[in-house]
Each structure stands twice: as C-alpha cells, then as structure tokens.
Amino acid sequence: MTTVKKPLLACLQGERQPIPPVWLMRQAGRYLPEYRALRAEKGGFLALVNDSAAAAEVTIQPIRRFGFDGAILFSDILMVPAALGQDLTFGVGEGPALTPALVDHALSGLLLALERLNPVYETVRQVAAQLPPQTTFLGFAGSPWTVATYMVAGHGSKDQSETRRFAYGDPAAFAEIIGAISACTIDYLSKQIEAGVEAVQLFDSWSGSLSPAQFERWVIAPNAAIVAALHARHPGVPVIGFPKGAGEKLPAYARETGVDAVGVDETIDPEWAAANLPNGMPVQGNLDPLVLIAGGSAMAQAAQRILDAFADRPHIFNLGHGILQDTPIAHVEQLLAYIRSVR
Ligand code: 1CP
Predict the structure, then answer these.
(1) Ligand 1 pocket, 52 CB below 6 A?
(2) Neighbouring C-beta atoms of residue 275, cutoff 10 Å
(3) Average pLDDT of 298-306?
(4) Which of 18, 215, 216, 230 has its CA 20 to 30 A from that of 134?
(5) What mean pLDDT is predicted for residues 208-223?
(6) Which of 157-161, 240-244, 282-286 has the lowest mean pLDDT?
(7) Which PROSITE patterns match (predicted)?
(8) pLDDT the model gives residue 94
(9) Crossing angle for the helix pair 161-169 and 171-195, to the nearest 10 degrees
(10) Which residue stretches of the chain are H helix?
(11) Residue 54: which residues within 8 A CB-CB, separation 6 or more?
(12) Which of 31, 35, 39, 260 is catalytic?
C-alpha cells in the first residue's frame, strides 16, 4: 500500500512545506451557494449539523470546489453547551440562544445530554470515508473561555462583559463551569479523533477581551489541561490553538499551553509573530478576511507579506478569522492560485 502525503498534517507535525498548505476558517458556509441550498432544504443550521450525511456533504463541499489542503468538520462550538444540558436554538436572523443562561441558573441544575454529540461522530466517520487521500481532516471545539461566554450570558455579545463580571464576582463558580466545559471538550475531541479526524483546533474567539491575569487563568491554564489530556490519549495528533485577539500574549500562549501549532489573527504583524513565536513552531494565518473580499493587488500584496514573513518555518496559510458571507468565490480561487504559484 502506498501512503499519500498530506501536506497540512506534515506541516502541523513540524515539517515546513515548499508551498504552504491552505484552508480557511469557516470555509464551509454561507458564501457557498451549494451550502445555502442544502441548508434551506434541511430547514436550518442545527438541522444540518444533526443530519450526519448532510453535514458530511457540507464539510466536503469546499474541498470539491477549491481543493483546500484541510477539511474542517461541519459542526459548531456550541454543541458542547448542548451536551452539557443547555437548550441551543438559532432564531432567524439572530445569533445563538442557550437556555437556561448560567448567569442566573446553577451549573448543577443542568442535565447532561452527551448523546447530542453522537451525530457529530457519525459525520466524522462519513467524511473520513469520502475525503481525497491528500486532504487532512480537522476536528474542532471551542476553548473553555469562549464557550463559557455563551453559556453564562445565554447569547453572544461584543465585549463578553456579563461573563467577565461573573468570573470576577464568583471565581469558584466560574472555575466549575470552565472545568465542566474542559472535561466535556477532552471527551468530545478524543471521540472526534477516534472517529477519524487527524488534527484538532481549539477556537478561542473571545480571548482578546481578558486582562493578562484573567487570560492566564481562563485561557492558558484550561487550554494547557486540554492539550495535555489529548496528547496523553492520542500521541502524535496535533492540536492547533487559536486565541483570537491575544495580541502580545500570543507568545506566552504558544509556549505555555503545549499546542503544536498556533493560529494568528489578522491584527498581528506576521513579522512580529515570526520573531516572537517559538522557533520552528508551525503557525497558521493570517490574511484579513476583508482583504479577501477586496481581492486584486491588495490581496496579493497582503498574502505575499505573510508568505515572506513565515517563509522559514512551517506555515499553514489561512485567514486571521472566519471567511465572511459576502466573499466572492472568484477571490478564493485567485488566492489559492496565488499561493500555489508564487516563489
Ligand atoms: O448557516 C448559518 O446561518 C449558520 C452560521 C454558522 C455556521 C456555518 C454557525 C452559527 N456555525 C457555523 C459552523 C461553524 N462554526 C464551524 C464549521 C466549519 C465551517 O463553517 O467551516 C465552525 C468551526 C464554527 C466555530 C464557531 N461557532 C465559532 C468559533 C470561530 C469564530 O468564527 O470565531 C463561534 C464563536 C461560533 C458560534 C456561532 N455559531 C454560529 C454563529 C452565528 C455564531 C457566532 C455568534 C456570535 O457572533 O456570537
């Protein structure tokens, strides 16, 4: 049997690739007409996530269209709160709602519903059976702090102030929430790996709102615990950490959590990241999703700057945050052609 090389997986394992492997955060989603059609047919986002055959199809759609080096499981970071016993809904034109919100309801009052994650593992098995052999399959979960911001407030927010206040006001109760999310996340990611994903990413979308001491306690410490548990159970399976908004705290995050690779958002200068992240550590990022919408020479220049800055280490080309809904498909094609042709 010949084994096919997977450039993204090799890069995550520390081998620099001559052409950086590429995938885009939120690459399965609303900028794709084939996604919108299937979502309408299934009657909404959660119906899509819970229908494993449809979720597998959505995971593969961007691979079929663009040939990205990585496929990311189609699910959501809020499946963990659902498994911990909150009811999850997405109202039309609104963000997610989780009830009861933990700002006024004890964690101990929730009834665990881990079976709500079973359709996700079935999606993983179906995708793993269908992906092209050179494509790396990525699982994911939210990091405890980011997931907690939704569980405590019951909804998304711009500055996470309800959850930050809760964490200062009752750190013992908040530590229990973080502990419960962490335990569930370890189990969830382990089962994704057992079902067939080859690497996992921890999304910490709201880590940028924390003070340095709170960042140490609610971002670095729980992520370190999750990474250690995953490495013990699944040696060799890379973990990507993406602490969006971490800014100058990024090098400490990279050193102290034990992640194998670090995601860099678009607010960070790639040359600063290259100079300040541990030598040889794989980095992922960090094109501004808005310059992908602009396209043309602005996009090519921004992409080149990132390619140059990370030329000496393992680099996975990605956006600095999720792809936006109004991104022209032609610009995604041009970006891929550019990355794969330069040098
Ligand atoms: O079709 C739709 O209307 C649903 C939009 C949507 C999609 C496509 C949601 C609701 N979730 C997802 C899928 C999703 N979410 C993926 C699958 C892979 C992919 O799309 O390629 C992933 C990795 C996520 C991760 C996620 N969900 C994050 C972390 C990453 C990030 O963008 O910061 C967060 C914060 C969420 C919560 C969430 N889910 C959905 C929405 C609208 C939100 C954000 C709510 C808010 O802004 O607070």
Answers:
(1) no
(2) 10
(3) 98
(4) 230
(5) 97
(6) 157-161
(7) UROD_1, UROD_2
(8) 81
(9) 120
(10) 7-12, 33-42, 45-50, 52-66, 79-83, 118-130, 144-153, 161-169, 171-195, 212-215, 221-233, 250-256, 270-276, 289-294, 296-309, 329-341
(11) 38, 42, 48
(12) 39
Between the CA of 76 and the centroid of ligand 1 the distance, in Å, is: 6
Pocket test for ligand 1, best of 64, 77, 89, 266 (most atoms within 8 A of CB): 77
In this predicted structure, the answer to whether residue 223 has a pLDDT above a threshold of 90 is: yes
**Whole-prediction pTM:** 0.96
| CA of 88 relative to ligand 1 center, distance in Å | 13
Distance from C-alpha of 68 to C-alpha of 320, rounded to nearest angstrom: 16
Residue with tokens 């079935």: 122
Q: Is the pLDDT of residue 209 over 80?
A: yes
DSSP string, 33-52: HHHHHHHHHHTSHHHHHH-H
Sign of the alpha-carbon dihedral angle for 317, 122, 191, 44: positive
Does the Cβ of 65 fall within 6 Å of ligand 1? Answer: no
SS3 label, residue 283: strand
> What percentage of the chain reaches a pLDDT higher than 90?
96
Distance of alpha carbon 124 from alpha carbon 325, whole angstroms: 25
The verdict on whether omega for the bond into residue 100 sits within 30 degrees of 0, i.e. cis, is yes
Task: Catalogue all structural domains in the chain, each as residue range(s) with its CATH number.
Answer: 7-341 (3.20.20.210)
Over 70: is that where the pLDDT of 342 sits?
Answer: no
Predicted pLDDT at 4: 77
Mean pLDDT of 300-322: 98
Any ligand 1 atom below 6 A from CB of 206: no
Q: What is the mean pLDDT of the chain?
A: 97
Which element (helix H / strand E) includes 238?
Answer: none
Helix (H/G/I), strand (E/B), else coil: 17: coil
pLDDT at 303 > cutoff 90: yes
**Pocket of ligand 1 contains residue 320 by CB under 6 Å:** no
Kindly name the residue from 31, 35, 121, 150 that is annotated as catalytic: 150
Question: What is the number of the ligand 1 atom nearest to the C-alpha of 30?
Answer: 1
| Local confidence band at 205 (pLDDT 50, 70, 90 cut-offs) | very high
30 is catalytic: yes
